[in-house]
Amino acid sequence: MKITQITPIHVEHNLLVRVTTDEGIVGYGECSPMNNHLVAAHLEHALVSLTVGCDPFDVEAIVERLLVSTYKLAGQSMAMAVSGIEIALWDIMGKALGQPIYKLLGGAYRKKIRMYASSMRRDISPVDEAKRLAGLVEKHGFTAVKVRVGSAFGFDQDAAPGRSLEVVKEVRAVLGDDIEIMVDGNSCYTAPRAIELGRRLEEYRVFHFEEPCPYWDLDSTAKVAKALDMPVAGGEQDWELPRFREMLERQVVDIVQPDLIKAGGFSVCKKIANLAEAFGCVCTPHQTQPLGTLATLHFAAATPNVRYSQEYNIEPNPLMQSLFREPALEVKDGYLTVPEGPGLGVEINEELLPTGE
Question: How far apart are CA 229 and CA 317, in angstroms?
């Protein structure tokens, strides 16, 4: 079997990748939607020529070739482009063998994946945020939620005065003691301010504090992790295995969060999870996109070290359901079930895909 074509597909704000083979088997992947046209340009002008003609089963060699051959363009956007191809290759392999991806990754450690309701909003009042999360807990059975604190890359500025502490206080009051609450700082704080806020948040038994400091500032994040009792999480912006090794060696984070559609796909993230396990840390992948969430289910199913609840984006996105011909991402009793079909386990609704790509 040989790869014959790679096509980036823009759907709404998402970027999918279709990989076609000479045996008629087609695989789909997804790239993180961060400047889609730039990532698509990487695919079209740098990666297609390096991949067409390869055997899709040679996934490790292909990923290494793509990353090494483009070393002068190395960076997050290139890793995103590689991710889209890599996930599609696993989809092809699963379809060729008639097996779901999780079985190719090592088999089922778990088949039901506990999910947490992940808010993306800072423009919502603490009262309204708690109310809508309570509604989702009642409707879908979530046992964990995540709220945004600070402001993205906010230089210690809150989205609204006092909001960060108040939203956690309100959510805890409304949801009670049995629901896990996580917070995401999105690179907002200096170490002193993150520690100050973190100590207040610990009063409300926050489960983890995600990306409290700018993600590139490992020293500051390490200070926060050392000062607080609650776990510190991070890694969604990173893609290189040596970077995760450094994070773990220096005890920067307690929970690593690689993103399958940013970091290079299944093969890279599997290595990161195994590395984290060797350091006594848990892997909780970051994920907010439809096909990426589906891929993460297979990853979580086959990776023992993915032990906590996983991210489910609660903001409206019609593709979360319409991208697939059968419902695949409907949380029931707080869990998603890993599809058993070949490859990613679902059929893409190709009628939604634009023609002429």
Answer: 35
pLDDT in tens, 242-276: 999 999 999 999 999 999 999 999 999 999 999 99
The tens digit of pLDDT for each residue in 179-191 reads 999 999 999 999 9
Domain spanning 103-337, CATH architecture: Alpha-Beta Barrel (3.20)
Tell me where in the chain the CATH 3.30.390.10 domain(s) lie. Answer: 3-98
* Stretch 12-20: mean pLDDT: 96
Closest CA to 54 of 110, 9, 92: 92
CATH 3.20.20.120 intervals, the chain:
103-337
Q: Which two tokens stand for residue 233?
A: 């999480």
Residues 6 or more apart in contact with residue 347 via CB below 8 angstroms: 324, 325, 326, 341
**CATH number assigned to the domain covering 3-98:** 3.30.390.10
| Residues annotated catalytic, as ranges | 286
Q: Do residues 244 and 262 lie in contact, with contact meaning Cβ atoms separated by under 8 Å?
A: no
Q: What is the mean pLDDT of residues 119-147?
A: 98
Write down the pLDDT at residue 184: 98
H or E segment to which residue 66 belongs: helix 59-69
Total-model pTM: 0.96
Residue partners of 127: CB distance under 8 A and separation at least 6: 170
> In the numeric block, which tokens belong to residue 68?
């090494």
Q: Pairing state of beta strands 112-118 and 144-148?
A: parallel
Q: What is the pLDDT of residues 269-318, one digit of tens each?
A: 999 999 999 999 999 999 999 999 999 999 999 999 999 999 999 999 88
Q: What percent of the chain has pLDDT over 70?
A: 99
Give residues with Cβ within 8 angstroms of 293, minimum separation 6: 287, 311, 312, 313, 320, 329
Contacts of 68 (CB under 8 A, 6+ apart): none
